[in-house]
Amino acid sequence: MFLIMRDRPAAACFVLLAAGAEIGCFPLGQPSYLALQGLGGAAALCIAVALVTCAVHVWLHPARAARSGWAAIAAGILSYPFANLGGFFVGMLLALLGGALAVAWRVAPTPPTP
Q1: 103: CB partners within 8 A, 6+ apart
Q2: What angle do CA 112, 67, 60 make, to 5 degrees?
Q3: pTM to 2 decimals?
């Protein structure tokens, strides 16, 4: 079964997906204005895609969740100057929280077989 929650950092994935959606929703709210937004809009979309990619990587490779967690924290910090104050602080805080959850998550050890 693909959606086994106890073996995966589900909370980190959902929070990172929410961060990517929140940061990406402002530039994509009016796609006709995307050309007028310039580099700020493009940077916001790149950071949103990076956060969603980190969430997918954390879900598919839970043993390497710390790498994606650190990348999400870096993207969250970069979202402050480059993406509308980090999605008006909400997206940045969600990215930092999701990255911290991914960094703190560890794979449960398998019990020894008798």
Answers
A1: 65, 66, 69, 70, 73
A2: 65
A3: 0.86
- For residue 84, how far is the Cα from the chain centroid? 17
Q: What is the mean pLDDT of each run of 10 residues along the chain (114 residues)?
A: 68 95 85 74 91 96 93 95 85 95 85 78
The secondary structure of 82-103 as a DSSP string is: HTHHHHHTHHHHHHHHHHHHHH
The DSSP output letter for 61 is -
What phi and psi values does residue 30 have, to the nearest 5 degrees? Answer: -125, 90
Residues in the chain: 114
Cβ(69)–Cβ(100) below 8 Å: yes
Contacts of 81 (CB under 8 A, 6+ apart): none
